[in-house]
Amino acid sequence: DIAILRTLGASPGAIMRILDAYGVELSGRHAVVVGRSPILGKPVSMLLLSRHATVTICHSRTVDLPSVVRTGDVVVAAVGRAEMIRGSWIKPGAVVIDVGMNRNAAGKLCGDVAFDEAKEVAGLLSPVPGGVGPMTIALLMQNTCEAAIRRAGG
User: Fold this and answer.
1) Per-position b or e across 109-142, b if 16+ CB within 10 A of its CB
2) For 73-93, how does the pLDDT look when each residue is reduced to its tens digit (9 = 90+)?
């Protein structure tokens, strides 16, 4: 599993680490990934599939996106649009991982999920800033240290 995480990238790996840290059971659950990028949306979808989740990949042009998101037990928001995912789109009790890094109309750093709305509905919700970003940095540091140790013959 660690080798797969390294191959697919630090941010997808960070998402999986967060889910593991909170004991989120993925087997048999429906995960909705909003975002199809080759560096985040697609790799995290593959990692979720490897944990036996049923995965739906969608994007900003998905027809009736709110209805699709509402089916997710786990939602990964990686669409790249400030506060696009509204609280009303979230299934009550769902786990929501926000990978977005945007600025809203007021210039405030925010994610792809409307946090104040979603926190009233979600069972777990990662914040922006302070969620996936710091875990991604931690994984990058871990990979750098491991590479240095291997290079030194350790």
Assistant:
1) ebbbbbbebbeebbebbbebeebbbebbeebeee
2) 999 999 999 999 999 999 999
What are phi and psi for residue 76, nearest 5 degrees? Answer: -110, 115
What is the residue-wise DSSP string for 69-85? HTT-SEEEE-S-STT-B
Spatial distance between the Cα atoms of 134 and 71, rounded to a whole number of angstroms = 28
| Peptide bond preceding 129 in cis form (omega within 30 of 0) | yes
Q: At what angle do helices 132-151 and 10-21 cross, to 10 degrees?
A: 110
pTM of the model: 0.90
Q: What distance lies between CA 99 and its chain's CA centroid?
A: 5
**Are 52 and 73 contacting, i.e. CB atoms less than 8 angstroms apart?**
no
